[in-house]
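Dear colleague,

Following up on yesterday's call, I've attached the two folding results inline so they're easy to grep. Please treat them as preliminary; we haven't cross-checked anything against experimental data yet. The first protein's sequence and structure tokens come first.
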Amino acid sequence: MTPLAPHPFTLLPNAGFQPDEPYGEHRSGLLSSPALAQAQAVITAWPGYAVTPLCALPHLAQGAGLASIHYKDEGSRFGLGSFKALGGAYAVARLLCRELGQRLGRSVSHAELQSDPALRLACADITVTCATDGNHGRSVAWGAQMLGCRCVIYIHATVSEGRRAAIAHYGAQVLRTAGNYDDSVQQADRDAKANGWFVISDTSYPGYMDIPRDVMQGYQLMVHEAVSALPQWPTHVFVQAGVGGFAAAVCAYFWERNTAQRPVFVVVEPERADCLLQSARAGAVVAVKGDLNTLMAGLACGEVSLLAWDILATGANAFCTIPDAAAVDVMRFLANPQGGDPVIVAGESAVAGLAAVLLIAQDPGARASLGLGPDSRVLLFGSEGDTDPALYQQLVGRSAAQVLADGAAA
């Protein structure tokens, strides 16, 4: 039996899923292995780059009636605490190369950007901006600081003070707006147009595609690391989603490489911010309105990224929503594992995929619909560590440092 208490969840098979559809030229123009190779060359050269751990959870897999569960733990990524470090900062680098190249009338490489004092001085005249729930803004601010440009970050009303301070730590000006995440996106866009700033967003919309594509391409390095470390190709992948860019990057990686044997792919959202599930239900992009009040702050998004929908609309097998309480239960379980599984510090937005697996594993009908069984090899992406340390301690009952110390002593 799994250690997760039963919680209500919704599992929606994707009526638009196309199992035999080739990845195709259009999607290759969005995300591709050559573009990933470019991102990999840039990101792996940054100071502090290290491959994040892929944690096997054999005891948990046995209890869930599965062959294996592997959890890619992004909590140590560049010291920023989340996978977002791969996307926003890479998009900042790409933007600066393009903009300086246009100004100078020649191509500018990422290596030059970091080594040429004159180029760094020119970067100081460029301002990047975005709206964020926390992690993406931290990545953009870190990238701006690393590369020498200015940065203004917008956060919405319910983003915690801890997340605001973490962004400001990297030298960004942080502005709090009224309303929800989507309102802050619109405010950042308006102010950028008025001030001549560059928006580095992880969500795409009509007329704004290039930068979100760079963000998503950066995310794929995480997938490549995970697959390179796996003993076998996964049969199932569960990925949590906000606007969908992260989930689409993961889905595209597998689809491009092996259309015939791509894993069963499930997108997981909070029940109070389920724009992707609602879009799948409607067969078209649908916005979810309201305060989107979920504990999983990094997933509190009401509008789907159009680039992400290009991939997920026919590439995802199913969409699932879970309640906040299930996420908290999984955070606590990973901090107190059983049967020799490793201790993992996982933030509230990191665990939705694992929570969905454990809930579905307890439901015979849901299991059968996804083909989950004793031969299933499940891959998950733990997208953040304790990016809000105070909230983590409140939810788990101990700080991350205490959790890791207790695990080492056990």
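Below is the second protein, in the same order (sequence, then structure):
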Amino acid sequence: MKILVVGSGGREHALAWKLKQSPDAERIFCTPGNAGTAEIGENVAISAGDLRALVRFAKENRVDLTVIGPDDPLAAGVVDLFAMEDLPIFGPTKAAARLESSKIFAKELMRENGIPTAEAGTFERSDDALRFCDRVRFPIVIKADGLALGKGVIIAPDPAVARSIIDEMMNQGRFGEAGRRVVVEEFLRGTECSLHALVDGTRYRLLQTARDHKRALDGDAGPNTGGMGAFSPANNWSAELEDQFHKKIMRPLLRGLQEKKITFRGLLYPGLMIGADGARVLEFNCRFGDPETQAILPRMKSDLLPLLESTIDGRIEGCRIEWDQRPSVTVVLASGGYPDKYETGKPISGLSEAAKLGDVQIFHAGTRRANGGIVTAGGRVLAVTALGSTIQAARARAYDAVTRIHFEECHYRRDIALAATTNEREFIKTTSP
């Protein structure tokens, strides 16, 4: 089979890496890809946002399956365009992808179907949002309605900060059209957990759990990022929570979508907050997570390709997924200054040395080839994943690999999965953000 993976980040490198292992994978294309995907497939200079060019390439090269990595092409309707040309593609339609591309749509759907989530107000006018803030208890969470590269969710500790954020989003265009409408919701206390599910329209199969580290700095300090690391399995998940997840979240969600005549086929991952009253939905994502994918796929023993095909064909219920029982830890190496301003073009050394370590996989994100070597080309540069007999062993191995990789102003968190090594089972955080 010829497979096209759309995107250029660590998630896409991980998907291409895993799909390449399939005995049915004849050729892998990545658009536009990065220095890592170039080592396992063929990079093609087409932007992930150039939907017409993607369709044209898939047709001309007789691609058997296209896998969409990032959220923007899904929100723009890339799956609908491929379907019009009878081209097989993994991902939800534009209507189904609204679960992620519109937080207001997702919030209203959850309300209608009794899905546990934060209490919230949705607003199209800044003065209405400001009046709502006068009546709520702080801290609160303010979310841009649309897609904002993982940075459109901001915690406001007091009314003054809330007023400033709302003005920046709704009046000053901080996130463009994505922030013209906002959701203002209560701040949920607890610990986060990411669940990925392959959904074929009516049925689904859960992948292994993971926990992401969103804040830029150690101790969960600093601004939100696209993710600074992850580990799998999550240490705050249980059989009881999984039972609640099926009954109160996934089944009502799929039922609610069907009532709206929306069929979801693809990867759905709800971000959850685990608190004293169980799991509540923070947000829905309609594609593989980043960096969760880099932590989950190295644990998957099963062939990913037939799982994606079964999802598209409505046959996921009959599929079994086999897992490596060892935990994994993923550490993201970022450019200095990320998620704000940063420089690129910094030469990267030590990749070969780090890759020689056992049970270590290095996924490229913001990289490119230049002058015979590999240089930085983005905010998040690399994701280093290691497996180990315990979470502590996996963590030690990942950081051993990280210390062998160097580029100017390299920044990474030193506490990824640290709490998990002490058998942390906390469900409620008592400190304010």
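For the second protein, one point worth flagging: Residues 424-433 have pLDDT under 50 and may be disordered.

Best wishes,
A.L.
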